Amino acid sequence: MRNNIPIFILCGGLGTRIKEETEFRPKPMVPIGENPILIHIMNSYAKYGFKRFVLCTGFKSEVIKDYFLRYSELNSDFSIDFNTNTKKILSIDHNLDWDVTLAYTGAETMTGGRIAIAAEKYLNGSEHFGVTYGDGLCDADLNEHFDYHLSHNKIGTVLGVNPPSRFGEIKLDQDTVVEFSEKPAFNEKWINGGFFFFKKEFLGYLSKDKDCVLEKNPLVNLAKDSQLNLFKHKGFWACMDTQRDRDYLTELLEKNEAPWI
């Protein structure tokens, strides 16, 4: 069943907050170790059986298209007969069994519009689908997330995370400090972790208009209708917004301490 659930990955943004990396490539193609962060995200799904992907491209879409068009060649032995201009793959040195669709959704289209445009063509009758961004990693059990979504029978289920604060926390009794914590490890303030499962009915909340933002009217209205559940995840989660974030993820990988692997 998991194999037939399309996962829509938002790959079309400008990535302006990490401009030093996105001047020549879209953010999902920024490498973490040897592979783009996009491949790490797709691997996170694939290990739980989700192997059907729809990449919603926009900014510098040609970079992503070229990567996947040449993936087998770059990871295989092959020969070229220049007399006939023919090419033969001799051995495939990867074990990917994914179904990857690259859907161009416009250079300036916002997140909700991208999903609506791609889903109209490539949902292919599926009753459920996943959505995530092209810059976030976590170690959540996505099987549990999907099972939770199915069992609660809501239109949408978002992964809720509560990353530790980068800043200290001070608790006061009037002006007296009663507790000082340098960096609280856990709090009950849940935020959008960027991993979703939806019923196909969610498409009714979206618009193909380029200004449709997933996080605004679609999710706000879904919540107003009591159709959005939260799947709580207390483990690892990180979003690659800045160069500092990218360096942090790279360091974890180089130390063999990457929780998402």
TrEMBL record:
Domain Nucleotidyl transferase: 9-208
Database matches in Gene3D superfamilies: Spore Coat Polysaccharide Biosynthesis Protein SpsA, Chain A
Pfam families, alphabetized: NTP_transferase
Gene Ontology terms, MF aspect: glucose-1-phosphate cytidylyltransferase activity
Keyword flag Transferase: yes
Alphabetical UniProt keywords: Nucleotidyltransferase, Transferase
InterPro entries from the UniProt entry: G1P_cyt_trans-like, NTP_transferase_dom, Nucleotide-diphossugar_trans
Keyword hit for Nucleotidyltransferase: yes
Residues forming coiled coils: none
Descriptive protein name: Glucose-1-phosphate cytidylyltransferase
